[in-house]
Amino acid sequence: MRTCSALFLALTALSPLLAQDGAALYKDRCAMCHDRSAETRAPAPTALRQMSPENVVRALESGLMKDQGASLSAAQRNTLAEFLTGKTIGQPAPQAKPNTCPNANAAFSPSGPGWNGWGVDLSNARFQSAAQAGLDAAQIPRLKLKWAFAFPNTFAANGQPTVVGGRIFVPGANRRVYALDARSGCEYWSIETQAPVRTAITVAGVRGERVRQVAFFGDQRANAYAVDASSGELLWKVHVEDHPQAKIVGAPQYSDARVYVPVTDAEEGPAMSPKFECCTGRGALVALDALTGKQIWKTYTIDEKAHPTTKNSAGTQMWGPSGASIWSAPTIDLERKIIYAATGDNFSSPATKTSDAVLAFDMQTGKLLWSKQITEQDVFNMACVPGPSKASCPEENGPDLDLGASPILVKAANGKRVLLVSQKSGVATGLDADHDGSVLWQTRVGHGSPLGGIQWGSASDGKNMYVPLSDITFIDMEFGTGKKLLLNPKGGGGLFALDVLTGKNVWTAPPASCGDRPNCSPAQSAAVSAMPGVVFSGAVDGHLRGYSTRNGAVIWDFDTAQEFNTVNGLTAKGGSMDGPGPVIAGGMLYVCSGYGAWGGMPGNVLLAFSPDGK
After folding, report:
1. Residue 98's pLDDT is what?
2. Calpha distance 272→39 (Å, rounded)
3. Among residues 288, 436, 295, which one has the least CA distance to residue 369?
4. pLDDT value, residue 428
């Protein structure tokens, strides 16, 4: 569920002559990850060319690649950025045209239909009611593109939009967060963030001297933000974790004047270097005061702080335990005052009991009430993939089967409360929410793998669990030969409906065909979203499809992997869909398209659909 550190940790400074040679810099510092994107999750060189050189330099100086960029001189960072993007620093780039909403200064009200945060509600069911959807199943075949919005200077549209009060709040991988009009796409405001943002945005009314509507989100440097939803004014920014590899990927959740922020550690990428001391970071859940940002409590997913363990074959000190990151939005159980979070694997030995698990925390105190581990002894980092050095690969060597999706809390027709769990193993699990997470059922839908299985999120209407399958595979994986890596057009994909009480397969929708499209995969890695009668699923092949909840038949299909003229005056591209899912609200359907990692098709567009495009 993670992205590799994009630039390999260097051991020695390059000569001044090499600083002028972008190709040599790339080969020495970058190719280790970017030429092996299927294994490392790093964006391929073709994706990086969609960035501006200035954004690459900023990533190396103060963003995700800050640690790697520290070993480069300013001249080397500039040379590398120009080589990667094919553009010259200072060269005028296509500019978005002003598209300010005529009523940009109007007061913001949260009334009306919406999709707030990651999973619509605190249960993370990703199911929209008919009243809030403003659509019925009969209208879906008539959906047409109404407008498109471009995220400039980036290769990914990996943030899920939020719809509240007739506005869309959406993050961009270009270090900007936008507030747009939901019907037209015009812009109310945008702000710059310290690092890229990919979390969904949660909007809530916060009482101070008055009630103010506040948008909460987190960035890739572990900063949590609160901004005025009406104007974009920054109210507070809090660094929730000091570990240098910490970041926020899962969306914050709001309840009763508190914001609950999940924390991810990203050390498994740097572990590719035999000189990197892997690993010391831990996942965490942090409760903040919504008005001030002050920390109320913080609970690590691994209670024990990392300590020196052994040395790798290169003589570098290893540390552990580590990992158990929280990659997804936490789920809140108001009935029992519990907050649930799903965790990923360990990055270094020893293995812990809280990795690949669902954890239950007391909402008031942060105390860990119980933990239900789904896969034991899962310890993995990027040193375990084929490459020059496996020095820091732990003895367990995976299998890297994180729980990357939010648990879904449902109450079935008979009153039984079930936590629905999605895992990269390809197994869906039902846990008893009222008996410390005891296993009710488990159903395998796929083979599973580090990029396979169930990735970012299922959905549920309380009767069925709708499960998308990735199981992505690749061909032509001949590293070091210069041969291009291609997605397998016949590997992965499919959508499943499982009974929430028994896990029984109700129906299966087979994967779609890639046809003659090059570098295509039918894998369905992105989170799915549902409304009465329909489940929407975006795929790596660039298609967004609507499936009947009755039998899994495809009732609507739109190919997003194309160019679009946008309301902000730029030509945008759609591509693979991974990570965030579609959003349904107020008679409209919204989706972000473009995911330029692990060989997927890059893109930078937000698309809005309505029946007949009206």
Report:
1. 84
2. 12
3. 436
4. 98
The answer to whether the beta carbons of residues 252 and 216 sit under 8 Å apart is yes
Angle at alpha carbon of residue 360, lines to 358 and 361, rounded to 5°: 140
CA distances from 101 to 192, 228, 436 (A): 19, 17, 50
Nearest one of 266, 273, 281 to 313, comparing CA atoms: 273
Gap between the Cα atoms of 334 and 323, Å rounded: 28
Closest CA relative to residue 326, chosen from 239, 246, 264? 264
Nearest-angstrom CA–CA distance, 185 and 188: 9
Q: Where are the beta strands (DSSP E) in 173-294?
A: 176-181, 187-192, 202-207, 211-218, 223-228, 234-239, 246-247, 253-255, 258-265, 284-289
Residue 540 falls in which region: left (phi positive, over 0), alpha (psi -120 to 50) or beta = alpha
Euclidean distance between CA atoms 459 and 511, whole angstroms: 18
Helices and strands in the chain, H and E counts: 9, 39
Q: Give the max Cα distance, the chain.
A: 72
Rg over alpha carbons for the chain, rounded to the nearest Å, is 22
**Neighbour-count burial of 587, counting CB atoms closer than 10 A to its CB (0-12 exposed, 13-18 middle, 19+ buried):** middle
Q: What angle do CA 161, 163, 166 make, to 5 degrees?
A: 135
Beta-bridge partner residues of 359: 341, 371
Decide if 4 contacts 65 (C-beta within 8 A): no
DSSP 47: H
pLDDT of residue 19: 40
pLDDT score at 375: 98
**Residue 604 has what pLDDT?**
96
CB-CB contact of 591 with 560 (8 Å): yes
| Contact between 213 and 230 (Cβ < 8 Å) | yes
> In the structure encoding, which two tokens stand for residue 506, read together?
């109700």
**What's the token pair of residue 335?**
């009935």
pLDDT, mean of each 10-residue run, the chain (614 residues): 41 38 70 58 64 70 63 74 72 77 90 97 98 97 98 93 98 95 97 96 95 97 97 98 97 98 94 94 98 98 98 96 98 98 98 98 98 98 85 95 98 95 98 98 96 95 98 71 72 97 98 90 97 98 98 98 97 96 98 89 96 82
Contact 58, 93 (CB under 8 A): no
- The answer to pTM > 0.85 is yes
Element of type H or E holding 459: strand 459-460
